[in-house]
Amino acid sequence: MFSFTSIENYHSFLATNPDGCTTAIKYYLSQIEKHADLNAFLEVFADEALLKAKALDEKRNSGQPTGKLHGVVVALKDIISYKDHRLSASSKILEDFRAIYNATVVDRLLAEDAIIIGRNNCDEFAMGSTNENSAFGNVLNPISRSRVPGGSSGGSAVAVSANLCMISLGSDTGGSVRQPADFCGIIGLKPTYGRVSRFGLIAYGSSFDQIGIFAKTIPDVALTLQVIGGHDRFDNTTSKRIQPDYQLVEENSAKKLKIGYFKDAFFHQSLDEEIGVRLRSFIESLGEDGFLVEPIDFEYLDYIVPAYYVLTTAEASSNLSRFDGVRYGYRDHKNGLSLREFYKKTRSTGFGKEVKRRILLGTFVLSTGYYDAYFAKAQQVRKMLIDKTELIFNDLDVIILPTSPSTAFAIGEKTNDPIAMYLADIYTVYANLTGIPAISLPLFQHSNGMPFGIQAMTSRFKELSLLQFSQQIIRQYKSYENPTL
Ligand code: GLN
């Protein structure tokens, strides 16, 4: 039977299996069917993926050169445009909308022979931490079906975790790749802001959004980043720097890196006790094993979630104004409605509760009279954080933090308490406020059976160091094993 461990091993398998891509697609289609209850996919491109697999098998067998992601089976969060395919952002307001162009990441995946198998469920417009805000139903955590997979890229995390595809792409505005990766026991990378093009990604908070990668191994993350990253003339916020060769992830230079950790974060009242104990002992063993580890005084921990929610809702209120019933998808149109009533009706019934809450919040913090007290203040906090981060990275190479204060929540646990839900983002939003790259590594298992790990960060555009560090940490400390599903 087909089994996937890494892209490299898959490519060796293809070298001796003329029907290898087809075998892989058939396996994933059957896995998706077997685990349909997880609700990870909003749509599966079964026929198309099979045809593509056959074409790739022929291409390889005829001796033509193959792409870096030849036959790699990829799933996309349903917020990334794939031309002529539906694109809903898990929202009723875009239910029947079809993408009219490819996101740059999609073009780059396809140019390297990847096969896109389907689009993944997520929180509506990427707003949420549990996937419970999807207009198309909850996604279940494959490790324990009574728990959430995390969010907002819940379906994409589950797709990799439950072996429904090899890798997947999500988006991370405040943790939406790292947190669901943590809840589902896989790796999640948010690259530096400006590393990966956002062209074709539906915008939530444009100065925070970044497309991220879910995978089971660091070399797979590295190869995917190599393919999707780099300058794009369609997104002026992308960096013109040439990407390093991420294949150097195996180089064992992590011991020379200086690691810092925010002391307060590992003792914070919100942190699950068992996770706190385990992570503090992990930090101790890093020191004992020859890493240079230093505590950092970081006095801003309690300001980062409020600053994040003020700024992202402000940006969202502006970004989502385009969904007015005229230009895209769903409209609530009855004869006799005035234009104003038409907009109001469309937006009131088209958007879900959380999205409406955020549009209102964002409009409020931007309104005259409150702008200085909220929006301008939050921008000042962001600037302070960026300055502080620069100072930290003058001395240190890596910062480590928990990824989430707890393991995956039970379904419904936080649904009626948005503030509690927002506060659980305490460890992830920092990297988005400052634009630095961050990765979540699934290292340990909680006594409740669920995975948890650590989050590592470097200064901007140092993804190669981050991946090298991650590879060494995983090699040396990972005890969590994904269950076979
Ligand atoms: N949980 C955060 C939020 O709800 C993160 C979302 C994201 O990264 N897209 O905003």
Overview features:
single chain, 485 residues, alpha/beta, Amidase signature (AS) enzymes, eleven-stranded mixed beta sheet, 39% helix
Explain the layout of strands and helices.
Blueprint: H1 7-16, H2 20-34, E1 41-44, H3 46-61, E2 73-77, H4 104-111, E3 115-120, H5 154-161, E4 167-171, H6 178-184, E5 187-190, E6 211-215, H7 218-228, E7 258-262, H8 273-288, E8 292-296, H9 301-319, H10 339-350, H11 353-366, H12 372-395, E9 398-402, H13 418-423, H14 429-434, E10 438-445, E11 451-457, H15 463-477
Helix pairs in contact: 2-3, 7-15, 9-11, 9-12
The site of glutamine has 14 residues, from loops.
A few lines on this structure:
The protein has 485 residues and is an alpha/beta fold.
What's the overall geometry?
globular
Indicate the CATH class of the domain at 7-228: Alpha Beta
Question: Beta-strand percentage?
Answer: 5-15%
| Number of helices, counting only DSSP H or I runs of 4 residues or more | 15
Cα(first) to Cα(last) distance is 13 Å
Note the run of SSEs as H and E.
Answer: HHEHEHEHEHEEHEHEHHHHEHHEEH
Question: Strand order within the widest sheet?
Answer: 1-3-2-4-6-5-10-11-9-7-8
- Quaternary structure annotation: single chain
Task: Please identify, by name, the CATH architecture of the domain at 7-228.
Answer: Alpha-Beta Complex
Rg from C-alpha positions? Answer: 22 Å
Question: Structural class of the secondary structure composition?
Answer: alpha/beta
Low-confidence stretches: none
**Mean pLDDT across every amino acid position:** 96
Helical fraction? 25-40%
* CATH 4th-level superfamily of the domain at 7-228: Amidase signature (AS) domain
Bound molecules: glutamine
Query: Any idea of the CATH topology of the domain at 7-228?
Result: Amidase signature (AS) enzymes
